[in-house]
Amino acid sequence: MTRLERHWYQPSWWMTALLVLPEGLFAVLAALRRLAYRRGWCRVTTLPVPVVVIGNINVGGVGKTPLTLALLRDFAARGVRVGVISRGYGGSHLRPTLVTAASTAAEVGDEPLLLAASGAPIVVGRDRGEAGRHLLALHPELELILTDDGLQHYALARTLEIVVLDGQRGLGSGRLLPNGPLREPRARLAAADALVVNGTRQAALVLPAQVPLFQQRLQAGAFVHLAGQLPARQAADFAGMKVVALAGIGHPERFFDTLRGLGVVLMRTLAFPDHHDFVATDVPDDADAVMVTAKDAVKLQCINHAKLWILPVSARIEPDLAAWILSQLKAKNGRKIS
């Protein structure tokens, strides 16, 4: 974690004073940008099917991808035909691109590859409106589109906004970038259609009472060998081994704490920037086992190191968010989806 990131969650008075002017400039520009779209001064793309945004107002990992995967699972169980559009952060694509089995993280980004494992069609694109049109051209049968991130991408009209919050870190200092972790002021939460708190609510998190609230809990599965050469293992199977945890995600400490909570004794942890492009030398030689997230695993396939073990997680949302979304869409559109 950088000094600036530490300041976001453990503020220092001198950094607050130093950054108050750029924070004010950011606030003005962000407000003007949103106003421009609300007043129609900037073009907004409206797709012919409902669009549900899964986003956040703060930078860093909050658990949007597990939530999106859980919704894809729950919609599929109900027979709802749904696809996903994503920015594809870190990918080299220049135009809307369908994620396929042959796609790589270098081409489409890491999160879209993880989402594509669900079997739902995924299209990445810098312009989410264009990405949505491309997705519907390829899959006209879709009834619903989810956007992974994109809360601040106001060029795309949305039917519902689902905002995800980190129960452990909350909104940090509650200040805007670069003085705090927020892309938009906390008052923006009142305009969302629903809020999802990821994990146990530990931080002081005052939420608007009028917005429906859901709880997301992540459940860890068995450890999977990345090279596919060994059977799945439980945490106890690593007892007595030199274990290192490696993560290049928005909030790596959550992953490390999950491992410790499972009873894994870690020799050390290695935290890399979010969306880090891994190379073979990032994997320590002195470890008997190296544990990684499913998100990082898609970028470690080319390394295919025999020491690498993936900890898959799945999200459970209470109450039933998929059912709530479908009821809201029926109320807004006057017709039932599936």
Summarize, please:
The chain is of the alpha/beta class and 338 residues long. The chain has helices spanning 3-9, 13-38, 64-77, 105-108, 110-116, 128-138, 252-261, 294-300, 321-333, and strands spanning 51-55, 82-86, 97-98, 122-124, 144-148, 160-166, 194-198, 213-220, 224-225, 243-247, 266-271, 289-293, 308-311, 313-318. It folds into two domains: 42-218 and 316-333, P-loop containing nucleotide triphosphate hydrolases (Rossmann fold); 222-311.
Question: Topology, pairings included?
Answer:
Blueprint: H1 3-9, H2 13-38, E1 51-55, H3 64-77, E2 82-86, E3 97-98, H4 105-108, H5 110-116, E4 122-124, H6 128-138, E5 144-148, E6 160-166, E7 194-198, E8 213-220, E9 224-225, E10 243-247, H7 252-261, E11 266-271, E12 289-293, H8 294-300, E13 308-311, E14 313-318, H9 321-333
